[in-house]
Amino acid sequence: MTEQMKFSVVCSLFSWMQRSKSLGKKRSKFRKFLDTFCNPRDYFTAIRLVLPNLDRERGTYGLKESVLATCLIDALGMSRDSQDALRLLNWRKGGAQTGANAGNFSLVAAEVLQCRQGMASGGLTIKDVNDLLDRLSSSENRAEKTSVLSTLINKTNAQEMKWIIMIILKDLKLGISEKSVFHEFHPDAEDLFNVTCDLKLVCEKLRDRTQRHNRQVCY
């Protein structure tokens, strides 16, 4: 089942795609990922992590960078005026305090986390990650959100947590468009999404990626 796939596999895909300069290779890699690791009965579990900005099943997190920084500081048990806490809070600013990754919150956070998390993966499956992200989005206050983030930090390494933060911020910076992702999934995926605005429905209706979609059947 797709949901039993290790989240580390998805992180490896993301890292490879981010490093690659060739759109053709990115598309080919994503297609191979779908063919190799995803069960046709459950593409959505994985694709919602690739296209987090199109996932309507999960509510908003209520975590822009400034609030997320505060929650991460509390989840890590750091003093608000510690050097790393200030790096997170001042992530937009350049200079010695923030470092070379100023302006990229996820990378600044990854640097801070790297000193506090082990290198080994915690072994989370993508179902585990999706369940925790569901909890995060449904949390009603900052304390609850901080608790979920603390759980994620304890069960991931810095590389995995970097990608989780990017999923939360709904900006993976993979250098591949939604259009390309849809096309590699199914030739009718973009068209169906444009009509329905429902990523889960698209994944379910087009689970047979060799079969062209009959519009009239769906709508």
UniProtKB/TrEMBL annotation:
The keyword Hydrolase does not apply. GO terms for cellular component: DNA ligase IV complex. SUPFAM superfamilies: ATP-dependent DNA ligase DNA-binding domain (SSF117018). This is Dna ligase 4. GO terms for molecular function: ATP binding; DNA binding; DNA ligase (ATP) activity. It comes from Quercus suber. One of its GO terms (biological process) is double-strand break repair via nonhomologous end joining. Residues 6-186 form the DNA ligase ATP-dependent N-terminal domain. The gene is LIG4_0. InterPro entries: DNA_ligase_ATP-dep_N (IPR012308), DNA_ligase_N_sf (IPR036599), LIG4 (IPR029710).
